[in-house]
Amino acid sequence: MLADSDGVNVQSGGFSPDLHRPKTWLHQLITFILEELPSWRDRGGRPTGDSETQLTSQLCAHLNGTTRKSPGWDVLQFRIEEPDETKLSRRIDLVAAPAGEVIWIEGRRHDDFDTLLPIECKRLPTPKGKNRDKREYLRVANGSTGGVQRFKAGLHGAAHEQAVMIAYVQTGGIVSWINRLDFWIRALSRVGISGWSLDDRLNLVSHDTNLRIAVLSSEHERELNLNRIELRHLWVEM
């Protein structure tokens, strides 16, 4: 299992001794989530539906079931619509958190009530509707519901320097959306939208055309004097 690759013995069960993990363990966790996306998508008996709320709820249930049966990952739980740790009035779509354990990462303590990894989920394309912006994965012209925008502004994940965005690609392919988002970021930079530059571009890390999943990465300056945040973008073609 990926969880065992750092050479640290993993103890599961109720309130075992504290677990200490390097920061790179979060990347292993992100890879675990990525690898489960096609299994969840193709799972027999998964209810049909295409709304973001429904899909994220299904994904959360699948991840919880999988972690319970996966040695090394059974120290985790996933929850939906969690209050942000800094902006309590804001809700994060999905979070990974310890389950009956205390997990230390880079000197920071996390228990059941803490978020290990904040995850924002978006549909591609953005559903049509009043006041919806087609660039909602990135930002919206009037409001603060843009996915990347929330992290850049410190409205989501201000207590973290690593976060994830999951894209449910419902029409068009991954390559098409990579090109489209890159065009939008270039346009935002070119017209001088505050806080946006070419440094916000998404970089392709891997693309599995058979499983129809991809990983992209980006790093962003943030407001409120926060440190830069690294986003991993996990995309799955539905």
Structure overview:
The protein has 238 residues and is α/β, with parallel strands linked by helices. It has one domain (2-237). 24% of the residues lie in helices and 27% in strands. The chain is built from 4 helices and 10 strands. The strands form 2 sheets. The chain has a 7-stranded mixed sheet with strand order 2-3-6-7-10-9-8. Strand 9 (213-220) and strand 10 (229-237) form a beta hairpin. It starts with 18 loop residues before the first strand and ends with a strand.
Give a short summary of the structure:
The protein has 238 residues and is an alpha/beta fold. It contains four helices and ten strands; from the N terminus they run E-H-H-E-E-E-E-E-H-E-H-E-E-E.
The biggest sheet, with number of strands, parallel, antiparallel or mixed sense and barrel status, is: 7 strands, mixed
Order of strands in the sheet with the most strands? 2-3-6-7-10-9-8
Number of helices: 4
Query: Judging from the principal axes of the Cα atoms, what is the shape?
Result: globular
Q: Please write the string of helix (H) and strand (E) elements.
A: EHHEEEEEHEHEEE
Number-wise, the strands total 10
Helix content: 10-25%
Contiguous runs where pLDDT drops below 50 for at least 5 residues: 1-14
- Rg computed from alpha carbons, rounded to a whole number of angstroms: 18 Å
Overall mean pLDDT:
92
How many discrete domains?
A: 1
Structural class: alpha/beta
For the terminal residues, how far apart are their CA atoms? 26 Å
Q: How much strand?
A: 25-35%
Keywords: Plasmid
